[in-house]
Every structure is written in C-alpha cells, then in structure tokens.
Amino acid sequence: MNSAQKSACHKIIHSAAAAAAAGNLVPVPGTGFAVDMGVMVAMVMSLARVFKLDSRAGAAESKKRAKKMKKVKDSIQKQLPENWKKHVAKESAKIISKKIAREIAMTALKKQIAAQPIRYITKETAKSVPILGTILSSAISAGLIEDAGWRVAADFDRSS
Length: 160
Fold this sequence. Notes:
Blueprint: H1 3-23, H2 31-50, H3 54-75, H4 84-115, H5 117-125, H6 130-159
C-alpha cells in the first residue's frame, strides 16, 4: 500500500468508524448491527475505489450484460437509445460493486464478531444502561469498524 492509498484508507476508515459510533448512540439493543452493516458496505465500496477493484468486477459483468442486451437490441432495435452500451456498463458496475461490497462487509463483520464475541455482546447489551451504556456501545462499535476496515484494506492491497 503506497502512501496515497494509506492516506485515503485512513480517511475512509476513520470516517466510517465515526459514523458507526454516532449510529450506535441509539439506545435500542439490536440496532447496532444494522448501523454497522450499512457503514461497512459504504466503507468497503469506498476502499474498493481506492484500490481500483470495483471497476474490474463491474467491467466483466458489463460485458456479459452488453452481450445479452445485443440480443434484445436486435429484436427491438428502435426502442433502445444510441448509447445503450455505456448505460448498461455504467449501471452494471454500480450494481456489481454494491453486491460485492455487501458480501465483503458481511464476511468482515462476521469475522470480527467471531474473533471478538464478548466485545460484540457487550456492545449490544450495554445499550440497556442509560447513558454510559450507549457511550460504551458507541466506542466498541467504532473499534470494531476500525479493525475490520484495516483488515479489508489489507486484503484489497494484496489482491490489487
């Protein structure tokens, strides 16, 4: 990982950890997982852009979709716009990168919970204590997201 990538990852991961901490201030047990997943998906998508990984996956899927669309175009030629290939490629890249990001985020969060189950259980049960519990839950969530983010960044660095 070069210094520019490390700097970008630093900003993305710390922003995600702060967002997770803020989202976990809600004193309802169980909501933390939903917040953590949303933050993780956004973080993974951003990290993939830093390492230029999402465009490759999207490009391969775009070619497949373009071939399918060519068959459709032949049958209903006049109903499609001129720039249909660009449109399909652009939309496919968005869909694929978000789908891949969800899978990566879910896997990373599962690994974090499996590696530190006591911490995650404490995070969710601490919310039942009025003020200190939500602050503790928020801090634990930030740490979990931070650690998972650096693990994902290291994985992306190895695969790029």
